[in-house]
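2.7 Reproducibility. Because tokenized structures are sensitive to small changes in the input, we list the exact sequence used for D-lyxose ketol-isomerase, including any N-terminal residues retained from the expression construct. No trimming or masking was applied before prediction.
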Amino acid sequence: MKRSEINEIIRESDRFIRSFGFVMPPFAYWSPEEMRTRVKDDSAAIRSARLGWDITDYGQGRFDELGLFLFTVRNGQAEDLKRGTGMLYAEKIMISRENQLSPMHRHVMKAEDIINRGGAKLVLEMFNSKADGSIDEESDVVVACDGRIKCLPAGGKLALAPGESVTLMPGNWHAFWGEGGDVLIGEVSTVNDDLTDNIFREPIGRFSDVEDDVTPVHLLVSDYDKWLA
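Resulting structure tokens (single pass, no recycling of outputs):
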């Protein structure tokens, strides 16, 4: 993806999020220069938890068709999970555009609530995992939706209206997209590790390859190791 495209997606996404009354934390608006100057104090914690802007086309170069906007608002550490105490949770705000696919994947460790925070319908396609982690194309998928249990056939589709949510457990294969318009999505989960805890059905990457045709307006999480080293 070109940096100029990423900058515009950040601006558009911020406007969309604010239209629902959600305001990003202050560090969201730090420039790359401010992030660098604060790297030895408060921005070091942001980098460690990998908080911030995250825009991906999964390395395929078709963001409008295959992509997702994310912003990680808060996140614990993997060590907290190992100890079973401390900050065991994470939160993201995301945008799925109309008919923009977030491809089929599962998590090994992370359980997550996917919440339609506003906009159009959010549609999820879901499968269970077999013992070896591959997709189970036969067994029914049982999920919790706002305190109610729903049973879907393998590959069944669940449509969430604004305010509705679904709880996905480790091993639940899922893909999702906006139907009828763009969707503001909330994610509340156990500690998030996007470097190792995303298993995709297809051989694709989690992050975009970025061409810096202009200066970034804000750094992406995937920029931190390069720009803040």
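The chain has one domain: 3-227.
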